[in-house]
Design brief:
The chain has helices at 18-32, 48-59, 65-72, 74-89, 121-128, 154-166, 199-207, 215-223, 277-287, 317-325, 357-367, 391-401, and strands spanning 5-10, 37-42, 94-97, 104-107, 114-118, 132-136, 139-141, 147-149, 170-175, 196-198, 228-232, 240-243, 256-272, 295-299, 305-313, 334-347, 374-378, 381-387. The chain is α/β, with parallel strands linked by helices.
């Protein structure tokens, strides 16, 4: 019988103290006892990376990007050494492995690199001889042999890519929640854990506000066909399986409901309609790192003017207003702004084959007298913009409407 290979990943709260480090060492050992090859990826202990970032700001407001990555990657080194040290104290053959020692090769800019390759020959030899490697997440080295980091929550991506290059059977993400829920349990107490979710559904949920996994990590898993299980390192409970295979249950139309806070809506009224006008509006925003979300365009009856509505984060509102007013490439009649808004989205692959979902969503919100500002749709999601004050009520009524309670 083939020996299974499993990659485990532990987040910052899972390794947040010496007691937690001892606890995750026991979790790693429990897999080892099942005659499994185990490799673990660790984040930095919670708070450590933030503390290192604060130190850079005390040095300079324009801290060198290469040195920044060298500094903030030290948190994972500490956590990995402590876990490996505990496993050795428990009589195991374990060692920490820093990104440059494998190496984990990356491409792209500092602080936002992507893993391109992981050399696994020595790692496999070590694991085949019963060793348990504890590998730093969140980092790699570039073609200049400089340390790079792969974005906040990048340890998930490290684990997924390690699972790819090790050809692992399973990748388990240990965190402080025991899985993915139908909606945020802090907003709706009737939220329930999802046993199994498609990559595309998880991708939508993570990009629409669910903090369980970063969208880029889910994308990596989908592209490389890596099954992920999300579970808690604090309690012994079954987690959520994220993969691309057929659903166990086919009667579930909507899988989950996501919501975001602090959105703002901007409408540019009476824009002179001509080819390239939308690009002229959004290019300066892109150049200044303003993330545009929902976009709706209405052409006037005479087809000479258009109204363009889009949403951004409230924090970017002043910057966006200034960029639009200073934009000489567009002509318009006026601009209106609206903040204190939230986006709520229903997500599920079941809606592709089920008519009437849009009506049911809008009807449920109308019954609760919740006004909709903007609507956008895709094959597997419908998103609406509503007032912040209605978010709890909206989540509750949609959760009930689509039988998720």
């Amino acid at each position: 019988m083939k020996t299974k290979t499993i990659v485990l990943k532990f987040g910052g709260t899972s390794v947040g103290s010496i007691e937690r480090i001892k606890a995750v060492s026991k979790i790693i050992l429990s897999y080892k006892k099942k005659n499994t090859r185990v490799a673990a990826i660790s984040s930095a202990m919670s708070g450590v990376t933030n503390d290192l970032i604060k130190k850079t700001k005390l040095i300079s407001n324009n801290f060198d990007s290469a040195e920044y990555d060298t500094l903030v990657s030290t948190g994972e080194q500490m956590a990995c050494a402590l876990i490996a040290g505990k496993l050795k104290a428990l009589g195991q053959n374990s060692r920490s492995w820093l990104s440059w020692q494998l190496p984990i090769l990356t491409e792209g800019n500092y602080s936002n690199s992507r893993i391109s390759n992981i050399k696994t020959k020595e790692l496999k030899n070590f694991m085949n001889n019963g060793g348990i490697p504890i590998i730093t997440g969140f980092q790699g080295i570039n073609s200049q042999l400089r340390l790079t980091t792969i974005g906040r929550s990048g340890s998930d991506a490290s684990a997924i890519m390690l699972a790819k290059f090790l050809k692992a059977d399973e990748c388990i993400i240990y965190t402080d929640v025991d899985g993915v829920y139908t909606t945020d349990p802090r907003i709706n107490k009737k939220a329930k854990k999802i046993k199994k979710i498609f990559y595309d559904e998880m991708l939508e949920m993570s990009s629409l506000g669910s903090k369980v996994m970063q969208p880029t990590s889910v994308q990596d898993a989908k592209l490389n066909k890596i099954d992920i299980t999300v579970k808690s390192s604090f309690v012994k409970k079954e987690g959520t399986l994220i993969n691309g295979s057929k659903k166990i249950f086919s009667n579930q139309i909507i899988t989950g409901i996501s919501s975001t806070k602090d959105d703002a809506k901007i409408t540019i009224i009476g824009v002179k309609d001509k080819p390239g006008v939308a690009a002229a509006i959004f290019k300066p925003l892109s150049d200044n790192s303003v993330n545009v979300d929902m976009v709706v365009q209405n052409i006037s009856l005479n087809k000479k003017e258009t109204d363009i509505t889009f949403t951004i984060k409230s924090d970017d509102l002043k910057k966006t207003e200034k960029l639009i007013r200073n934009n000489k490439k567009i002509q318009y009649k006026k601009i209106s702004f609206d903040k204190n808004l939230s986006k709520i989205s229903i997500i599920g692959v079941g809606m592709i084959t089920t008519p009437g979902i849009t009506y049911r969503m809008f009807n449920a919100l109308a019954k609760k007298k919740i006004n909709i500002n903007v609507i956008t749709t895709s094959e597997i999601k419908i998103s609406v913009l509503i007032s912040n004050k209605d978010i709890k009520k909206a989540v509750a009524c949609l959760h009930k409407e689509f039988k998720l309670d």
